[in-house]
Amino acid sequence: MKKFIYTTLGVAGALSFAACDDYLDTSSPSIVDANFVFSNTTTARAALEGGYEAWRSTANSYVFGAGLFYAADIAGSDIERHPEAYANQAARHIPESFYGNGTQTEKYDIDSYSSNNNSGAYTQLYNVIGKANAVIQGMEESSTASEAIKSGEQSAIGQLYGEAVALRATAYRELLKYYGDVPFVTVFGEEAGGLASRDSIYDCIIADLIKVEPLMYPVGSIPNTDSKVKNYFSQTYVDGLIGRLALEAAGYQTRRADMTYVDGDGNPVQFETLGKANANAANAFYARRSDYKDLYETAKTYFKAAIDHAGTAKFYSTDPRSTGKAGQVFNNPFQYFFQQMMEDDATYADESIYEYPMQYNVTSDERTYSSGRPGTGGSKNAYPCKCYGQARINPAYYYGIFDPNDMRRDVTATVTGTTAGTEIILPFTPGSQAKGGGIALNKWDDNRMTTPNTVAQRKSGINGPYMRMSEIYLGYAEACAVTGDEGEAKTYLKLIRERSFPTVALANTDKFISDCGSLFNAIIEERGFEYAGEGDRRFTLIRTGRLPWAIKRIKELTTDMLDGIKANGSYTFANGNVISDYIYTKAVDAQDSIGYRLTTQCTDETNPITYPGWRGVNDDWSAFGWTANTATTNLAIQGLFAAVADGAALEADGYTKTSWGQQLLDNRDEYEKYLFYLYDYESAPIYLWPISPNAVAMGGFSNGYGFQNE
């Protein structure tokens, strides 16, 4: 039997020990008759819906669309950055840059993103857990449901039970990622008190998921649900979640020096440390479990199970779209995933395993507002409406690390935004919307929606993409690489990489692996290209121990770039890209010159309207009420990746000389000095968030890492 060990901090008296499986035998303070509610799938599904709604709202508003994710994940890696000035957004910039190497934890306003009014991410995630616990216990107390659970076989009731367990595990995954060691509550109605070793929690929730996995059905075959719907947790999702949790449990994490760390059996955890303890943050240390390879074996098993149980989740190695009516060329399967997400409410992307649902013109949606292409429209009745654009891309990464032949680059990042139905350059001056902030995430764009919402901002209806097949492939490749199955690891790395280049030769996987120094490093770097701008990179670097290396690389490359521009007016990167102090831009009528305004995969890099690709504006904003001039909708750009030979000739042709690299020099501190401000590459990175004073007091524990408690 698994044991679960609590550690109390700052309170008198020890909490009782509880085993991982003990909650299966507890009695729930039910307010309804469990035998009635869980005697059939209709009432059981209705009971579970409240938990799903709590998770959907929490995911969007606190941990994945906005909230903690918004403040650091999509703005705090070697790929991603923050659009506004450091001094103007201290509550976000400070945690994004590891609290100034731990020097700012004690001074940090702990209510900034963990509201003391119990409305923050911490409280909301425990609300999800409470609802999941109620369903789990109710089903265990129901004679009908408990018999189905004990059978160990697939059934409609077993599927629902598995979904409830997956819901709880998903909420705990986010708590562990953002807060480290937290209370572990598995009894309905029990308050979240006492800190538990995160290793115990990981072990317990992984064990729970392994038990329910055989009860469940692959995505697309869940009983009594539409096969096209992907807003429920499936067997495929649980397989992937086990793999995801196992990778994270096996990885490097920053830990408190005042905690006793034990595994799910109650045994002390042995660690392999990296770097040095952070003396500025209560001597927190950066380490991974010594038994990390056992967890990688678990990840390998269940990522492969997800591949085998893929159901209706597809991985496209080629683009299923044909040529557009106006001659638009697609031929980019990576691009296709994001385009599908921008279709109507009823559409789920083929590659998705799970998306949390958002409703067009009803729910407050962070895509495209914070995780999309920036726009300077008004909050209402605009074309498109305002898009703040929190997710920006480090210019040195865009220019110097993204391979120019990688078809993911233009889907991922854009140098233009939109305003009033027209395309404009994104300045590097600090700011938001399309008024500043620099190169931005391009994966979601109101211009590309089948029915763009011109009525109000934050109402796009684009779902939250929480798990998709490419993650399964890359997770499986990583697990195979660590456990010695390099042939299988390389096979799945190639599947991801080769679909992202026009030819296998240009992908050149063997050279890529060699350049990265190892197969494992190559897989982690490939994951960066696949998920750039989506907030995956930060924690991936942390858990793999690649964080110090990645920060050092991007800071040095940024300094070289800025020094080159200052000395020569341009800088040439190793991949051949050139960034210049000035570029040349011209407003044009793309409809007249190429037949459409919203560009697709670029096939002619000499055409300044279509290169870089996947930009422009909606082909027909007038269909949604726009009445402005359509003669200058698109932006032609010259000199973005190569120095212009004759600027005077371009100006004579109507182009405007536009400050570009010079703006980086003018704002050098924002792009260089404050890029992971004060981090020393050796001390344990303080990436976790403080818990609010109310929660600390009610839970009977203290914040670690040097954070305040009141």
The CATH architecture of the domain at 3-63 and 97-285 and 692-699 can be given as Alpha Horseshoe
CATH fold node name of the domain at 3-63 and 97-285 and 692-699: Serine Threonine Protein Phosphatase 5, Tetratricopeptide repeat
What is the distance, rounded to the nearest whole angstrom, between the alpha carbons of the first and last residues?
39 Å
Q: Which range best describes the helical content: under 10%, 10-25%, 25-40%, 40-55%, 55-70% or over 70%?
A: 25-40%
Sheet with the most strands, sense and barrel status: 3 strands, antiparallel
Number of strands: 20
Percent of residues in beta strands? 5-15%
CATH hierarchy class name of the domain at 3-63 and 97-285 and 692-699: Mainly Alpha
Would you tell me the structural class of the helices and strands? mainly alpha
Topology:
Elements: E1 3-4, E2 6-7, E3 18-19, H1 34-37, H2 41-63, H3 67-71, E4 80-81, H4 90-96, H5 98-101, H6 121-141, H7 143-151, H8 156-179, E5 195-196, H9 198-212, H10 235-250, E6 253-255, E7 271-273, E8 285-289, H11 292-308, H12 333-341, E9 352-356, H13 366-369, E10 392-393, H14 395-400, H15 408-412, E11 413-414, E12 416-419, E13 422-425, E14 440-441, E15 464-468, H16 469-482, H17 486-498, H18 504-507, H19 509-516, H20 519-531, H21 537-544, H22 547-568, E16 570-572, E17 578-580, E18 582-588, H23 590-593, E19 634-638, H24 647-652, E20 656-659, H25 661-666, H26 668-673, H27 693-699
Antiparallel strand pairs: 1-3, 2-5, 4-10, 6-8, 7-8, 9-15, 11-14, 12-13, 16-17, 18-19, 18-20
